[in-house]
């Protein structure tokens, strides 16, 4: 069995799917690590091409020999909520100024999408997590 590579660092980035470029924020974050930025952007864009239009987080593991691996996650709940109710941004004062309403069916759909990345055991718990996110951005959850 070959020896395991030593991990130098683990970074997290949220990038537009299929549209990553070596310009900031990618270049700014990955530059100091010494990995090939173009190689990462090409691999990320190829992996996320089918999800174009979404923000897809990537967790990049950088090894001491300047190689890397990355894992993509599901889009952030905030982005999914904004897309579901056609919202530009959340409320600056979420508990006083409401910016929209989301239905329980839409919350369930988002929770099902986010389920692999949430630490919930069932869909009901995942829905509560998504509802909390919606409330914190000034979106009312309706029945």
From TrEMBL:
Record has RNA-binding as a keyword: yes
Source species, domain of life: Bacteria
The keyword Acetylation appears for this protein: no
Domain Large ribosomal subunit protein uL11 N-terminal: from-to ranges: 11-68
A GO MF label: large ribosomal subunit rRNA binding
Alphabetical list of SMART domains matching this protein: RL11 (SM00649)
Keyword annotations: Methylation, Ribonucleoprotein, Ribosomal protein, RNA-binding, rRNA-binding
Stored CDD domains: Ribosomal_L11
A biological process term (GO) from this entry: translation
GO cellular component, one term: cytosolic large ribosomal subunit
Pfam families assigned to the protein according to its UniProt record, in alphabetical order: Ribosomal_L11, Ribosomal_L11_N
Residue span, Large ribosomal subunit protein uL11 C-terminal domain: 73-141
PTM: One or more lysine residues are methylated.
UniProt-listed InterPro entries: Ribosomal_uL11, Ribosomal_uL11_bac-typ, Ribosomal_uL11_C, Ribosomal_uL11_C_sf, Ribosomal_uL11_CS, Ribosomal_uL11_N, Ribosomal_uL11_N_sf
UniProt xrefs under HAMAP family: Ribosomal_uL11 (MF_00736)
Protein family membership: Belongs to the universal ribosomal protein uL11 family.
Protein role: Forms part of the ribosomal stalk which helps the ribosome interact with GTP-bound translation factors.
NCBIfam families on file: L11_bact
Self-association state and partner proteins as the record states: Part of the ribosomal stalk of the 50S ribosomal subunit. Interacts with L10 and the large rRNA to form the base of the stalk. L10 forms an elongated spine to which L12 dimers bind in a sequential fashion forming a multimeric L10(L12)X complex.
Record-given protein name: Large ribosomal subunit protein uL11
Organism: Actinopolymorpha singaporensis
Gene: rplK
């Amino acid at each position: 069995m070959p020896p395991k590579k030593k991990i130098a660092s683990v970074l997290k980035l949220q990038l537009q799917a299929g549209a990553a470029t070596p310009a900031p924020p990618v270049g700014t974050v990955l530059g100091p690590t010494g990995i090939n930025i173009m190689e990462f952007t090409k691999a990320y864009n190829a992996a996320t091409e089918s999800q174009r239009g979404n923000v897809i987080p990537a967790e990049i593991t950088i090894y001491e020999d300047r190689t890397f691996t990355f894992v993509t996650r599901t889009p952030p709940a905030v982005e999914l909520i904004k897309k579901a109710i056609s919202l530009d941004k959340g409320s600056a004062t979420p508990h006083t100024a409401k910016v929209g309403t989301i239905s329980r069916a839409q919350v369930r759909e988002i929770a099902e999408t986010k389920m692999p990345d949430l630490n919930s055991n069932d869909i009901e718990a995942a829905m509560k997590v998504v509802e909390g996110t919606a409330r914190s951005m000034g979106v009312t959850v309706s029945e």
